Each structure stands twice: as structure tokens, then as C-alpha cells.
Amino acid sequence: MQKVLSVLGLSGKDQESLLESFQKHYIETEGFIRSYIYWMVRSEVANDLVQETYLKGWKSFERFQNNSSFKTWIYKIATNVTYDFLKKNKQFKTFEDTMKSPEDNQYEYRDMISRGLLLLTVKEREVFILFFKFEYTVPEISKLIEIPEGTAKSRIHSGRDKFVNFLNKNGIKNE
Amino acid sequence: MNDIKLKEILNKDHSTPVKPSNEWNSIINKMNRNKKWSFKSLPVMLIPLALAIVLVVLVLPIQNTTSSERENLIEFVIDDSYFDQTSESYAWVDYI
Fold first, then answer.
1. Is residue A58 less than 8 Å (CB to CB) from chain B?
2. Which of A20, A77, B71, B78 is least surrounded by CB atoms within 10 angstroms?
């Protein structure tokens, strides 16, 4: 830790505990953040965006208020990083599955989900993933991304309709 | 299709990129690169070094010139060739 602190030009107990605290939060939250970003961009580029998220987090970590959850706070940063990325890289409107390998028997399934998600707007996709993949409730989503519950419900329903229609057209029928 | 079925479909896809083993170190390195620059962070030793570089790059090449080269250089800088090169625009004065 001392070496890391000297590399960063930090000194003193406060700075040491700040970095230790940030690393602890990183260990606790990186799995969720990586998974969330991956489901938004559907590419291995998610790993780069995870790093960018924590870098931005570190820059403003001193201003982070402990009365809010770190996960909520870093999630907002991850969302901004992801939105910026999707805005700048319009080609990601057509997913390029970089995780495909010859012995990958899940590829077609994954590709179908990616293409289905592509039909959703970024805001719909965010709420859809939180609800159906990460199994957040509507009040939790509303609190996490600071939107009214009605807006969250409306995005879930519109995203759901688009996704289910896509699945139906691709041979996965209502059961 | 009900919500439970939809969740089942999404949960069949377990793909997530593998966390790079050295990710925390990469973040630390990037933190270091992105440190804000300030005069305080400038090592004091760099100031004489910068002056030495200025001396080597600007002053020494001028001092290494021969006296004739220096004269030419001074002449080039000082001499105003404008009046030598212009034609006499008031030639009509001669006819008066």
C-alpha cells in the first residue's frame, strides 16, 4: 500500500485510508458494474469501461458522501460512462460479439439476446436489464436511477414488448 | 410470454467478460498518469535542467559560428534592403 501511495504522490493516514476504502468498495462492486456494463454494450469493451468508471470514481471519491451507497454512486458513474461510449460509438448499434469462440455453443443464443436488446433505446435497455436480468424491483430501480416509478414501469413495458416481439419473430413463442 | 419466462431466457446467458487479473494495478497506473499537473508537483531540479536545455539549443549554436558567419547574420538581421531594391518611383522629377 505504501508503494501505491508513493506512486500516486499521496501521503498521510487520511490518504492511505481513502485509497484503502476505495479499493474495498471496488472489490465489492466491480462484479455488478462489469456485468451491468457488459449487458448494456454486449462486448468485451466492457472491461475498459469498468476501468474508466473506477478512474472517474477515484477522481471525485473525496467528495463522495458516505450517507449514500457507494454502489448507487458508482452505478451512476458507470451509466454516464456507458451512455457516453454508446453515443460516441454509433457502430455499437450493431453488436459485434467479440467473445465468440469456435467451441462456443452458446453463441447463437447470446447473439439473439444481443440483437433483441439492440431494438431497445438505451434508457429502455437500462431499466429492462435491471428488472429482468438483475431482478431489481420497480421501487429499487426508481431509487437507483432517480426516476418516478411510473416512468420506470413504462420503460419496462415498452422494452419488454419490443424484446418479446423480437423473440416471437425468431421462433421463441409465448409459453 | 410472462415475466418469469423472460427472466429464464435472459438468465440462460451467463456471459460476462473475465475480470483481468491485474485490473486494480492498471487502475492505479492510470490514476498516476491522470494526476493533475501543478507547479508544486514540478521537481525543483527540473528548472536548472530546463535552463540548460535552452542554453544548449539556442545560445550555443550562435556562439559556434565563425566571425564572418556572424557578420552575415547580423547584416541579414539589421540591413534593410527595402530601399536598395525598390525602383525610383518618382522618375518624373528628373524631367522637370
1. yes
2. B78
